[in-house]
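Incident log, structure service

09:12 report received: a user says their structure output differs between two submissions of the same chain.
09:20 pulled the input from the user's history:
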Amino acid sequence: MNGCFLPPMVTISTHGLPRTSTPQLHPHVAAKVQSLAPDPDTRILDLGCGSGALLERLACMGYRQLTGVDIRPPAATAAIRYWQADLDQFRLDAADGSIDLALAVEVIEHIENPGLFLAELARLLRPGGLALFTTPNLHSAQAKLLFALGDRLKQFDAKGDPTHIMPIVLFPFTRLLNRHGLTVLESWGFPLDGSSPTSRPAMRLAARLVRPLLRTSIQGDNLCLLVERSEAGHCSTTGNSTKEELLTSHYG
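09:34 re-ran on a clean worker, output below:
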């Protein structure tokens, strides 16, 4: 890899308990990027980039137009530029349609106002541009079982990251995306084998036993979504209906 150094997976501490992000998530995302956008000059934006580890991986793969955004970004390198921004008040000094591919890896669940975030994302993406989201998977058998037995949301309870505030459920989130001219092209779970590294062994066993009853097809700890910006651009309308008409159509 031309002498590139790929940083190891980062272990973080939550309430004093060591927790590690899902193993191999960054390599999986990077491989997906390569399949979607093999051109090394693809304009890639990593939202909530953290230490820049994913962007460094992409730089090692030959990508040349890489930008990261975070509330406390690292220093720029020869291969990667960084912008400082609070994603809860997301606005970048960048032109409309200036991004080909945006990444939001384990980010949307931290956002206070996902509508504002998606509106700016849609503005930045070119028509036909793509966005790849990953977020805690509330559709898995483990998550459904935990909610059924303990009225708890997996990775949003006392044992999860305390900055997780916005659980993402696919159907209503799809509606929110559509309001901003964004369409889900593909959804899948990670790890691809449907395993749940963040679950205790007893929960994994119980979930495996009841999985046929739970009617869920998206397994694994992470929900992954590939989203496309419509050719018409970012907006808050559907067809000829205005937002006002959409929001008041059910009024008596």
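09:41 both user submissions now match this output. Likely a transient worker issue. Closing.
09:42 reviewer note: The chain has seven helices and nine strands. The first helix runs from residue 25 to 36.
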